[in-house]
């Protein structure tokens, strides 16, 4: 259980970090435990750690700031062991040299300085440190962000670095695709693209041709439409007169004959309305005129009547 003074001190330091961020250092307390802090150190330019992002943890004792914290690093870096406490004058390895005036920002700044400076003088590594070549440090720096993004806690604590990693992956993918197209273009893909362009051009030409045909079509003659309606009217009138004579002879009564005539006229008017709708459609009129001669049309109408 953290002491009240410890909690107040850590809260104050977090507010100070948010107000005045430290260069190459990002640190945040755990949402569930203020005594556990998570940090990211960004490698300095001009060092083998340039371009690297090193994730680690700081465990503060409940007596902080009167006792030093424990420091560990999670990201492979070629300088310190992972998941092991690092021996520093400001860590719990040397409580006798601890200064209560030191803060989280000063601890991490000192860790970054100790990490990047004096690499050639580490003939006898201290506890928690390792010796690796410069090329190995550079390789680990290049893969550090990818390694960190596999850690669920890192993704939760530092979403901005996850977004940066995604952007890097996207840019690298686009660059590799561009280089592959420039250096060794794929013949199959280019041929497929050419076929698609050719088919698109043919479709456009076909559409333009249909438009030209429609524009060049002559409108259906008005006199021809009037002639067809006249023939239809004559065809309707002849059987109507014949029906009138037959009904009069059968029923011998004007009322029944009138009723039958009205029903017959209504039926013929409905047929006439349907024909009129078809004639008003210019495309249907053209197709009808192309398929049947006037004589055949006349005979067909007589047959329907």
TrEMBL record:
Keywords: ATP-binding, Membrane, Nucleotide-binding, Transferase, Transmembrane, Transmembrane helix, Ubl conjugation pathway. It is a single-pass membrane protein. One of its GO terms (biological process) is cellular response to water deprivation. It is an enzyme of class 2 (transferase). Its main location: membrane. It comes from the Eukaryota. GO terms for molecular function: ATP binding; ubiquitin conjugating enzyme activity. Residues 5-167 form the UBC core domain. Its EC number is 2.3.2.23. SUPFAM superfamilies: UBC-like. It is found in: Membrane. InterPro entries: Ub_conjugating_enzyme (IPR050113), UBC (IPR000608), UBQ-conjugating_enzyme/RWD (IPR016135). The keyword Transmembrane helix applies. The chain crosses the membrane at residues 220-241. GO terms for cellular component: membrane. PANTHER family: UBIQUITIN-CONJUGATING ENZYME E2. Accepts the ubiquitin from the E1 complex and catalyzes its covalent attachment to other proteins. This is E2 ubiquitin-conjugating enzyme.
């Amino acid at each position: 259980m953290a002491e009240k003074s410890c909690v107040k001190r850590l809260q104050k330091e977090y507010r100070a970090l948010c107000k005045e961020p430290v260069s190459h250092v990002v640190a945040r307390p755990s949402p569930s435990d203020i005594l556990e802090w998570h940090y990211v150190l960004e490698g300095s330019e001009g060092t083998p750690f340039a371009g690297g992002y090193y994730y680690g943890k700081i465990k503060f004792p409940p007596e902080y700031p009167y006792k030093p914290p424990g420091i560990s690093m999670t990201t492979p870096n070629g300088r310190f062991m992972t998941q092991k406490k690092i021996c520093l004058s400001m860590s719990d390895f040397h409580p006798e040299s601890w200064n209560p005036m030191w803060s989280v920002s000063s601890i991490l700044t000192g860790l970054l300085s100790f990490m990047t400076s004096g690499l050639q003088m580490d003939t006898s590594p201290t506890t928690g440190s390792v010796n690796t070549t410069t090329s190995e440090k550079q390789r680990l720096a290049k893969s550090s962000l990818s390694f960190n993004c596999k850690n669920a806690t890192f993704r939760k604590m530092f979403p901005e670095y996850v977004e940066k990693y995604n952007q890097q992956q996207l840019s690298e993918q686009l660059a590799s695709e561009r280089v592959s197209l420039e250096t060794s273009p794929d013949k199959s893909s280019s041929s497929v693209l050419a076929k698609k362009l050719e088919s698109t051009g043919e479709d456009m030409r076909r559409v333009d041709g249909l438009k030209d045909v429609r524009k060049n079509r002559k409108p259906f003659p008005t006199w021809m439409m009037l002639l067809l309606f006249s023939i239809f009217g004559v065809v309707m009138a002849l059987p109507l007169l014949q029906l009138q004579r037959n009904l009069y002879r059968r029923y011998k009564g004007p009322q029944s004959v009138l009723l039958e005539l009205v029903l017959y006229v209504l039926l013929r008017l409905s047929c006439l309305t349907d024909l009129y709708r078809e004639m008003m459609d210019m495309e249907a009129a053209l197709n009808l005129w192309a398929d049947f001669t006037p004589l055949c049309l006349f005979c067909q109408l007589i047959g329907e009547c």
